[in-house]
């Protein structure tokens, strides 16, 4: 801030306040500095360190010397079947969970917009799944999906359907985990879309009603175009979070049966903290980070075009 | 549309909403029911719907598994990470909002999308070197990765809503900028501080991965304790359910009391972004 020497009445500012006036002049960088330094130390430095680690061959133990292997860990990953399996599973999980969440979230948002007249209780209920502790969510769903005693099989049987092995079936485990994610995160999508719906102006809807548009036409040509920014925001958030889902998978299946639900971050977790292969894990983590970043940027490019 | 038609329609919509809410609530209801049943009832071939509630599972979890100590650990970590996050985050959020520092806000956004697991390995190695593994310091620092960007991101929106006139008036009256920030701006963004604080506490309380790797016997948090309890091969379903209820209960109570704030906080990033 520049203090021009003019004849305007001098503000009753303490002239002698050396630190105070220094702070005022430099507030633009003094105020954000502590937070930015903390974030730098806690996030940027670890990422840089991770990048360096990914070029080394070493174990967690300090006793063994580390050696530089260049891109060796990355080329090892590209030849690792378990890595490709984990990438495939990560995208399968996301590919099942996120589109269903978007659809169910949209349905729920439209429903809430129609029926909810300042009903705080309904909103509180909708919040519960996404703010509950993931470990607790995972435990309770694991109990419900128990092949012998779980209540979900009881429901299936009551409906005249056969019992399912749920998490114990290597073909069903990813859809079953995606179901938990669907339950947990549909509310977030619906709340974001609901916020979008509630800020819409009334005029276009009035006009459409007078012109005798059908409900589908109203949705297709008025609601949806105006809802798109909120929908893209929800989609971006959910894609990113679904790709990095860890808690519910690790708690419910530990990546099993076998490696049937071992997504990329679960695999990286196992190589890092069970097999203690530091360099290789760092390379896997870098690849995960790049994937998430590419998806995040990709969705935003799509948004620009839309 | 006739009155009759619109009534039918209201009935259909409300029925649909009730169904959705039942599906959302069912896991919680089932969890609470299991936590109040005996092992015999929990392992019956067909689920028991009517039973006499017992508190035995809660007694088991709290007494035999040192649950209160883990709760204390979780609270220490969540409260410290939130308090430090506020101290560092509020001035930063104010500055970003007031001076439109888009570069910084972009940086905050980016640090929110990085998978936490990518920080875990380097932090683990560094904390091992510094002999900090198992300390509260390690846990609080790692939880700051969650709370700090969240607090900044949520409060930016609240700072932006404050008209600059108020601040200008204070400056004319001889207040310094920092003084105006503390005495005038902060009280005005109190709802934002509450929102951000609650969400930061919740997400720190819920955090599993950092606490699992960076925590130790003396600093074990509730989610890790419950996970260990399960992985030691416990088949005591009632106790598992009781533990799940005990972790979730504080959050449910908190969110019921301040749900309006939480909705605003959770969707702020989404709608603005």
Helical region count of chain A? Answer: 14
Q: Please tell me how large the radius of gyration of chain A is.
A: 26 Å
**CATH domain fold name of chain A:** MetI-like fold
Global outline of chain B: flat
Structural class of chain A: mainly alpha
Number of helix segments of chain B? Answer: 14
What multimeric state do the chains show? heterodimer
Strand content of chain A: under 5%
Category from helices, strands and their pairing of chain B: mainly alpha
The end-to-end span of chain A amounts to 41 Å
Sheet bearing the most strands of chain B, described?
none
CATH superfamily grouping of chain B:
MetI-like
**Under the CATH scheme, which architecture of chain B would be assigned?**
Orthogonal Bundle
Spell the H/E element sequence of chain B.
HHHHHHHHHHHHHH
Describe the structure.
The complex is a heterodimer of chains A (306) and B (273). Chain A has 306 residues and is an all-alpha fold. Chain A has one domain: MetI-like (MetI-like fold, Orthogonal Bundle), CATH 1.10.3720.10. Helix content of chain A is 70%, strand content 1%. Chain A has helices at 18-25, 27-30, 33-53, 72-78, 81-115, 120-131, 134-144, 151-158, 173-198, 203-210, 215-243, 247-252, 264-273, 278-305; strands spanning 56-57, 67-68. Chain A has a two-stranded antiparallel ribbon with strand order 1-2. The radius of gyration of chain A is 26 Å and the shape is globular. With 273 residues, chain B is mainly alpha-helical. Chain B has a single domain, classed as Orthogonal Bundle (MetI-like fold). Chain B has 14 helices and no strands. In chain B, helix 12 packs antiparallel against helix 13 (237-257). Chain B starts with a helix and ends with a helix. At the A-B interface, helix 1, helix 2, helix 3, helix 5 and helix 6 of A face helix 1, helix 4, helix 5, helix 6 and helix 7 of B.
């Amino acid at each position: 801030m520049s203090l021009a020497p003019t004849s305007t009445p001098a503000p009753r500012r303490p002239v002698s306040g050396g630190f105070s006036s220094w702070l005022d002049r430099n507030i633009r960088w003094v105020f954000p500095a502590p937070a930015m330094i903390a974030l730098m130390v806690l996030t940027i430095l670890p990422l840089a360190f991770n990048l360096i680690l990914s070029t080394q061959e070493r174990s967690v133990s300090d006793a063994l010397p580390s050696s530089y292997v260049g891109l060796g860990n990355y080329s090892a990953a590209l030849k690792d079947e378990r890595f490709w399996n984990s990438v495939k599973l990560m995208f399968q999980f996301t590919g099942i969970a996120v589109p269903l969440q978007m659809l169910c979230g949209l349905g729920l948002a439209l429903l809430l917009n129609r029926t909810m007249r300042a009903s705080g209780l309904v909103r509180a209920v909708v919040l519960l799944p996404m703010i509950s502790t993931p470990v607790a969510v995972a435990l309770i769903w694991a109990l419900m999906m128990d092949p012998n005693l779980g209540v979900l099989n009881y429901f299936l049987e009551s409906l005249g359907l056969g019992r399912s092995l749920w998490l114990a079936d290597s073909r069903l485990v990813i859809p079953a985990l995606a179901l938990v994610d669907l339950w947990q995160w549909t509310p977030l999508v619906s709340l974001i879309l609901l916020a979008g719906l509630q800020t819409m102006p009334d005029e276009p809807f009035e006009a459409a009603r007078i012109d005798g548009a059908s409900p589908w036409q109203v949705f297709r040509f008025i609601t949806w175009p105006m809802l798109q920014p909120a929908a893209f925001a929800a989609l971006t958030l959910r894609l990113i979070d679904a790709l990095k889902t860890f808690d519910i998978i690790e708690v419910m299946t530990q990546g099993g049966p076998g490696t049937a639900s071992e997504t990329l971050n679960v695999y990286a977790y196992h190589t890092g903290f069970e097999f203690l292969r530091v360099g290789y894990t760092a390379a896997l983590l870098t690849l995960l980070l790049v994937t998430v970043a590419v998806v995040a940027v990709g969705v935003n490019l799509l948004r620009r075009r839309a | 549309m006739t009155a009759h038609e619109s009534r039918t329609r209201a009935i259909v919509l409300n029925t649909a909403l009730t169904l959705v809410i039942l599906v959302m609530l069912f896991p919680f209801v089932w969890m609470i029911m299991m936590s109040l049943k005996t092992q015999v009832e929990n392992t019956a071939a067909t689920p028991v719907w009517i039973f006499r509630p017992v508190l035995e599972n809660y007694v088991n979890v709290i007494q035999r598994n040192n649950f209160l100590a883990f709760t204390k650990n979780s609270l220490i970590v969540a409260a410290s990470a939130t308090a430090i996050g506020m101290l560092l985050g509020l001035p930063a959020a104010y500055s970003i909002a007031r001076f439109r520092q888009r570069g910084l806000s972009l940086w905050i956004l980016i640090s929110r999308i990085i998978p936490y697991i990518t920080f875990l390995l380097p932090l683990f190695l560094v904390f091992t070197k510094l002999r900090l593994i198992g300390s509260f310091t390690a846990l609080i620092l790692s939880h700051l990765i969650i709370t700090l960007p969240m607090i900044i991101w949520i409060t930016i929106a609240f700072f932006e809503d404050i008209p600059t006139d108020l601040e200008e008036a204070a400056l004319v009256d001889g207040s310094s900028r920092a003084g105006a920030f503390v005495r005038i701006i902060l009280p005005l963004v109190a709802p934002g501080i509450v929102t951000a604080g609650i969400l930061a506490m919740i997400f720190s309380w819920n955090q599993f991965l950092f606490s699992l790797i960076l925590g130790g016997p003396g600093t074990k948090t509730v989610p890790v304790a419950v996970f260990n309890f399960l992985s030691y091969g416990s088949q005591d379903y009632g106790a598992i359910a009781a533990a799940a209820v005990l972790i979730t209960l504080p959050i449910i109570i908190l969110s019921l009391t301040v749900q309006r704030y939480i909705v605003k906080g959770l969707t702020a990033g989404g709608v603005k972004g």
